Amino acid sequence: MSLRNNRWRDVYKILTKHGFSVDRQRGDHIQMIHPDGRFVTLIKKDPIKMGTLKSILMQANISQEEFLKEI
Predict the structure, then answer these.
(1) Under a CB-based contact definition with an 8 Å cutoff, are residues 48 and 40 in contact?
(2) Which pLDDT belongs to residue 8?
(3) Which of 17, 30, 48, 49 is deepest in the core (most CB within 10 A)?
(4) In the chain, what is the straight-line distance between the N-terminal and C-terminal CA atoms, in Å?
(5) Fold of 8-70
(6) What pLDDT sits at residue 53?
(7) Nearest-angstrom CA–CA distance, 33 and 51
(8) pLDDT per position in the chain (71 positions), as tens?
(9) 44-to-36, 37, 63, 69 alpha-carbon distances in Å
(10) Where are the domains positioned within the chain?
């Protein structure tokens, strides 16, 4: 598995598993918040581009290896 061609729903599931919940949504962007105050913006577009996914993982403090294990 790689960081390419991941669906937004899979990323959403992993973020919720790590404690994130939906704060608000506008159009195809979902703003998610963690109880410790971290914010992540997830775009509802398939597939998520690799650079965008890397940015999401960095904001969520999830390593790429950990993400790939959970997919």
Answers:
(1) no
(2) 95
(3) 48
(4) 8
(5) Metal Transport, Frataxin; Chain A (3.30.920)
(6) 95
(7) 21
(8) 688 889 999 999 999 999 999 999 999 999 999 999 999 999 999 999 999 999 999 999 999 999 999 98
(9) 24, 22, 21, 22
(10) 8-70
Reading the block at residue 21, the tokens are 């919940």
- What pLDDT was estimated at residue 54? 95
Rounded Cα distance between 49 and 7, Å, is 10
Residue tagged 């949504």 (tokens) = 25
Phi, psi of 34 (to 5 degrees): -105, 150
Please give the biggest Cα pair distance in the chain. Answer: 30
Give the separation between CA 60 and CA 57, rounded to whole angstroms: 5
